[in-house]
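Hi R.,

As promised on Friday, here is the backbone we talked about, encoded as structure tokens. Could you run it through your design pipeline when you get a chance and send me back a sequence?
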């Protein structure tokens, strides 16, 4: 099982797509405490129903929440960067501290930062494509997950992923 660190945007959107449980079953998902606080604790306070569903799914799968860690490699990368929030910063620290394979996000600023620093990442849309490619998700289920995600991602990403799924190709882009 490879380790995947998630930020709040990636966690929430994967939940909306209905794929969080599948990711939890097939990978070691690492959730930093600030991400959990943003997606679940604050979400519940703001009465977002999906926050309660995230909480149920994470509890059901006994997903650990990782306390904030400081990693010097992440600290160096983040020096002078003020455009990232607490969740993204915590995700980057945890990625380095736990030697994770990738970070799951759909925050465009964070994805640009990860790309510029050659850090592997996934997006909820690319997870759909990958799950269909490897057989974790059937073609029709992949299209249904993409439809659930549609209003939460850029139309250009939706169109590209839909085309990829319809033509049996991979290649989801950032959100």
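Update: got your reply. Pasting your designed sequence below so it's all in one thread:
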């Amino acid at each position: 099982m490879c380790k995947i660190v998630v930020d709040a945007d990636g966690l929430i959107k994967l939940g909306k797509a209905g794929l969080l449980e599948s990711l939890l079953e097939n990978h070691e998902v690492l959730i930093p405490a600030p991400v959990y606080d943003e997606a679940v604790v604050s979400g519940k306070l703001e009465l977002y129903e999906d926050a309660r569903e995230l909480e149920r799914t994470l509890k059901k799968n006994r997903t650990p929440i990782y306390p904030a860690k400081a990693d010097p490699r992440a600290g160096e990368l983040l020096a002078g960067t003020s455009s990232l929030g607490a969740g993204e910063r915590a995700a980057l620290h945890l990625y380095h501290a736990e030697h994770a394979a990738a970070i799951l996000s759909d925050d465009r600023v964070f994805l640009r930062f990860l790309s510029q620093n050659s850090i592997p990442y996934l997006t909820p849309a690319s997870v759909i494509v990958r799950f269909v490619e490897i057989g974790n998700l059937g073609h029709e289920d992949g299209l249904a997950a993409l439809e659930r995600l549609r209003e939460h991602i850029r139309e250009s990403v939706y169109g590209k992923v839909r085309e990829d799924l319809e033509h049996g190709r991979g290649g989801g882009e950032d959100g």
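One thing I noticed while checking it: The longest strand covers residues 28-32.

Thanks again,
M.
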